[in-house]
Design goal:
It is a multi-pass membrane protein. Pfam families: BPD_transp_1. The protein is of the alpha+beta class. It has 2 domains: 224 residues, Orthogonal Bundle (MetI-like fold), CATH 1.10.3720; 125 residues, no CATH class. 48% of the residues lie in helices and 9% in strands. The chain contains 14 helices and 9 strands. Helix 11 runs antiparallel to helix 14.
């Protein structure tokens, strides 16, 4: 009995039996494992197995019959189309997340000072409710080259025509019976000089009478103007035909607004614009000069910017992406901004800082953790961009807008169907995403320790 007491360390009661250890949450490990099993099975079936199979498949040729080792990975950087995809993906990662984060920051800060800010936030966030497919179709129409259909070019052409003189009669040319001859640069000049008191005839063709701008009136012969030079510029053609070439016939229309210049020794000494009936008058200085119709009368109309051309297709699609995701960045940054201590902002203002200094030196540093979250999220997102490029970029310029996700699709599921190369591109894309994910996980762990 005494030995039992000694073994018990002098305690008066019996030693209680040892209990089975539980996890920190008070749950036995096998119970936690049982609940995690379905998720682990799905994770293995949908993530681990596809990654492992892609690695294995990337080491074989197109039909999987021959082992080629790292040859498919070498093709990624030697094939022009795939190398362009790598370059464009790098442009997307460098530009799009920074642009969207910057827009979101600006919107979030400005919305705090705007009445009805909730309504504005809803409008900016609304594109997030649209699928990538629908957004692609929308911006394919926005970037349409025809200004009558594409909103972007309609705006550009409207602004251009406000500040620049537009051509009056594009594609018009002199009548074969005319004394006007091409003089370079798209202009036409008479071979003979003109004299005061002898009206000049400047017939043009190449325009359909029913396509003349405005409300054209019938052309009239110019009257003798004493010591001034006069003449008529008209369309030497009428619907139904007939009439004498080089002469002003009934129902032939005057070319209103066309510019006429008098040139002596290569210098313009006078100029005038034709009236509604095509007649014009030049001062005495024009006597003995040649008449020139400058190229500005005949230049093709400005039709805007080739948004989806080889040089602008990638920036144009990045613009569409920014339109969709700026609302996402704004909402997250606005949530972080709501937690900023306003006393710090007021203290900076009291110390004499202006609004730009408060924004740059106080607001942005305090929002740095939120900005990093938004930036990393968008970087991961743009590496997988596919829908917008596939829908917006027209077939002739899709190669110039190509990215890795689209090249994976093109290599594996179109044309020759090279699953080996497609799998290699998928693995490269995974390796590019992994560093960003690791940085994000480490950041989350650091914040959890605080």
């Amino acid at each position: 009995m005494s030995s039992q007491v000694a073994m018990a360390g002098g305690s008066s009661g019996p030693v209680p039996p040892a209990r089975k250890r539980k996890s920190v949450m008070g749950t036995r490990p096998w119970v936690a494992g049982l609940f995690l099993l379905p998720a682990l099975v799905l994770l293995g079936a949908l993530v681990v197995y596809p990654i492992g199979y892609s690695v294995w498949r990337s080491l074989f040729d197109a039909d999987g019959s021959s082992f080629v080792g790292m040859e498919n990975y070498g093709d990624i950087f030697t094939d022009d189309a795939t190398f362009t995809a790598v370059k464009n993906t790098a442009i997307w990662v460098a530009v799009a997340p920074a642009l969207v984060t910057g827009l979101g920051l600006i919107f979030a800060v400005l919305m705090e000072r705007v009445r009805w800010s909730t309504a504005f936030k809803m409008v900016i966030f609304m594109p997030m409710a649209i699928s990538m497919l629908a957004a692609g179709i929308i911006f394919r129409l926005v970037y349409e080259a025809d200004p009558d259909q594409g909103v972007a070019n309609a705006v550009v052409v409207g602004v251009h025509d406000t500040f620049a003189e537009s051509s009056v009669y594009p594609n018009a040319r002199p009548s074969p019976e005319s004394d006007l001859k091409a003089s370079g640069g798209g202009a036409f000049t008479t071979t003979d000089t003109v004299r005061a008191g002898v009206p000049a005839l400047l017939p043009l063709v190449g325009i359909a009478p029913n396509k003349l701008p405005g409300d054209p009136v019938d052309a009239q012969p110019a009257e003798s103007a004493g010591d001034e030079v006069s003449g008529t510029v008209w369309l030497d053609f009428r619907l139904g035909g007939g009439g004498e070439k080089g002469a002003i016939d009934a129902r032939e229309k005057g070319l209103s607004g066309i510019k006429v210049e008098a040139v002596k020794d290569g210098e313009v000494v006078a100029s005038a614009k034709a009236a509604d009936d095509g007649t014009f008058r030049l001062p005495t200085e024009a006597d003995g000069a040649q008449l020139r119709l400058p190229a500005s009368n005949f230049a093709a109309p400005y039709n805007g910017v080739d948004w989806l051309g080889p040089s602008l297709v990638t920036p144009a699609i990045i613009g569409a992406y920014a339109w969709m995701w700026a609302g996402f960045a704004m909402v997250l940054i606005a949530a972080g901004l709501a937690g900023v201590d306003r006393n710090l902002l007021e203290a900076a203002r009291v110390d004499g800082a202006n609004e730009w200094q408060v924004f740059r030196r106080v607001t942005v540093p305090l929002l740095a953790p939120v900005l990093v979250v938004v930036l990393i999220t968008l970087m991961i997102n743009v590496m997988k961009i596919f829908d917008l490029i596939f829908i917006i970029a027209p077939q002739p310029t899709q190669d110039e807008a190509n990215v890795l996700a689209l090249q994976l699709y093109n290599a594996a599921f179109t044309g020759s169907g090279d699953l080996g190369l497609g799998s290699a591109i998928g693995i490269v894309l995974l390796l590019l995403v992994l560093p960003v994910m690791i940085v994000n996980i480490r950041r989350l762990r650091r914040e959890r320790r605080r």
